[in-house]
Amino acid sequence: MENPIDRNLKEQINKEGWEDNASVIIGKEGEEIDNLKERLESDNKCIDAATYIRLNKIICVPTNEIDPDFKKSITVGDGWIINNKLIYIDKEKNIVKVVIDFNNISSISEKNRQFLKEEVADFIEELNPYGFRVDEYSDDITEYEKINKVIDNYRLKVTENTIEQKDKEFDF
Fold first, then answer.
1. Under 8 Å between Cβ of 74 and 80
2. 105 within domain boundaries
């Protein structure tokens, strides 16, 4: 019995196969599925920069914790890459961080992996269609510094709240 899924569609899904912390593989039971599972388990690379970000982003400051006046001054998609870390404003206006490991992004060419500047350029170029405006080693670092201050203040607040909570729990 022939599989009702178009062969080209199946190949495309199996090639990309990543979405929101899940992988998708399609094939016939037996050797085809076994081969795809083996590839999946051994090749933990993401197909492109956008997929890598979806799978590896960490929300540093949720949007509801950002001062409303400051929130008006930030723009969705703005980002900065410094020391292989991408800090950016996501579509909900959360401040998000991604530690970039270029070796785990298939679309970054092997040749460019030898030269950090080219890796970063490839990464930024891939993100442009998604509305990112990423600065690499920008001369105008003031916006990045402001974002970092918001992150530091939020971390301090969370730490203080945790200490207060622990103190309340052990109040004898």
1. no
2. yes
Domain shared by 56 and 129, yes or no: yes
Q: State pLDDT tens for residues 62-100.
A: 999 999 999 998 999 998 888 889 999 999 999 999 999
Rounded to an integer, what distance in angstroms lies between the CA atom of residue 109 and that of residue 68? Answer: 41
Residue with the two structure tokens 């350029």: 121
Which residue's structure tokens are 């899904």? 13
Q: Where are the alpha helices (DSSP H) in the chain?
A: 7-16, 31-42, 49-56, 68-73, 116-127, 142-169
By residue range, what is the domain housing residue 101?
Answer: 49-169
**What is the pTM for the complete model shown?**
0.65
Q: What angle do CA 136, 100, 73 make, to 5 degrees?
A: 50
CA count, 13 A, side-chain hemisphere, 97: 13
What's the gap between Cα 42 and its chain centre? Answer: 21
